[in-house]
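Risk mitigation, structural track. In case the binding assays with 2-oxoglutaric acid fail to produce interpretable data, a predicted complex structure has been prepared as a fallback.
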Amino acid sequence: MLLSAEGHAPGLKRVNAGDREVEVLLSIANPRLLLIGDLLSEQERVILLGLSMGKLRPSLVVGAEGHETHATRTSEGTHFDRGSHPVVSRVENRVATLIGCPLTHIEPLQVLHYREGGEYRPHFDWFDAALPGAERATEIGGQRIATLIMYLASAEDGGATIFPSLGLELNIRPGQGVYFENKNSKGEMDRLTLHGGSPVRSGEKWIATAWVRERPYVRPAA
Ligand SMILES: O=C(O)CCC(=O)C(=O)O
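Fallback model:
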């Protein structure tokens, strides 16, 4: 994965992401976490926003009976099927190159839209085997091992991406993103990756999230 990849010297500020170089603005070793700049161009952001309009639905969380709405996640969202638009393809390939994983291990990009008051309370992206729904959620692709949250638009006030166990609050600008790995150096799912989106106080926030699986996330043909 990105931070552990050979050839990325400590302190390296610019990293090859295939069709463009991105900038490492901040890096933390434990958990592996990077704040990344120059990830998306303005034109790409506008196109991804345009593709999302009219497709948004209330966001869901994994529960005992499958996916359900919940007060802990008051956003709306949609996803893009892999390769469904040239810009979606371009961004997917960039993300795979940057992270150093096969394209098939990345779940379809998820777009989230938060209005005023919208938030996503702290949670883990990985599935806790002790909780209901985990077995079903990992049936295809296995565990979620990394996350890349890309900002399409930032709130005017509020809406930071927060990591409460790290005391970290990131006010991320459009086109930037935060990447983190969900397993610690012992290969265990890392509770330090607890994170969320703090309430938007004014304006709107849009993000596109790429979750990386251990294995290909591909549904078998029916
Ligand atoms: O809205 C945010 O900043 C966090 C989003 C998030 O936690 C996620 O997509 O898993």
